[in-house]
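Please, structure for the following, as tokens.
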Amino acid sequence: QVQLVESGGGLVQPGGSLRLSCAASGSAFSTYVMGWYRQAPGKQRELVATITSAGITNYADSVKGRFSISRDNGENTAHLQMNSLKPEDTALYLCYCNTRRLIGSANYWGQGTQVTVSS
């Protein structure tokens, strides 16, 4: 069982920045695929960014050039640096992982941290 706890959300003005953090349990964190989803009222849950165990990253087109995902395997954490924030970035941001096991691979999500971009 992997537990994910997000932090770093809050209220920020358009054009501002936030850094989200995700603390994960588990002894094999370095092998997990990590990522961030977001969900806003009336919209589908959107995959924002992922990072593999090898450090390969992918981003949704809507955040390319503005967001950056990273991981620190020594601290079992993943981060999402969000710059040039727009009101349309307002959403609940959820940390995600996939354990990538040969047998019993599973997906996990945290409870989320709210990001609100407003003047």
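The mean pLDDT is 96. The chain has no helices and eleven strands.
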